[in-house]
């Protein structure tokens, strides 16, 4: 079934009730949106996936580990040597 929807000035679209009911979409439900060519695809995100993503995001915010302990110069030196090694086929 197809239906024409309107987009308001703030970019919002209201999904028809029968579609929300059929897809299990309730208030505050999360949706994935993507573009495929000239189409816009909306897919409900399962609550457990949404909850897991939020838990991981919260955990990431609490971790204060430093990713790189070396200087930028040391990183560039390592990358240059690694590139040369691979280019020459050295182990």
Write a brief structural summary.
This protein has a domain at 1-47: Ribbon (Pemi-like Protein 1, Chain: D). It is α+β, with helices and mostly antiparallel strands and 91 residues long. Helices cover 44% and strands 13% of the residues.
Strand content: 5-15%
Question: What oligomeric assembly is this protein in?
Answer: single chain
Largest sheet: 2 strands, antiparallel
The beta-strand count equals: 2
Please state the CA-atom Rg, rounded to the nearest Å: 24 Å
CATH class of the domain at 1-47: Mainly Beta
Pattern of helices and strands: HEEHH
Summed up, the helix count is 3
Strand order of the largest sheet: 1-2
Give the low-pLDDT segments: none
Overview of the structural elements:
- The chain is α+β, with helices and mostly antiparallel strands.
- It contains 3 helices and 2 strands, in the order H-E-E-H-H.
- The chain has a two-stranded antiparallel ribbon with strand order 1-2.
- The model has no long low-confidence stretch (mean pLDDT 84).
Helices and strands, with pairings:
Layout: H1 17-23, E1 31-36, E2 39-44, H2 47-62, H3 72-88
Antiparallel strand pairs: 1-2
Keywords:
Pemi-like Protein 1, Chain: D; 13% strand; 91 residues; two-stranded antiparallel ribbon; alpha+beta; 2 strands
């Amino acid at each position: 079934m197809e239906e024409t929807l309107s987009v308001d000035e703030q970019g919002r679209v209201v999904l028809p009730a029968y579609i929300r009911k059929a897809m299990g979409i309730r208030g505050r439900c999360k949706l994935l949106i993507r573009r495929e060519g000239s189409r816009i695809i909306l897919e409900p995100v399962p609550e457990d996936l949404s909850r897991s993503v939020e838990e991981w995001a919260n955990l990431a915010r609490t971790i204060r580990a430093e990713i790189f302990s070396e200087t930028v110069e040391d990183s560039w030196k390592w990358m240059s040597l690694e590139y040369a090694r691979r280019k020459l086929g050295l182990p």
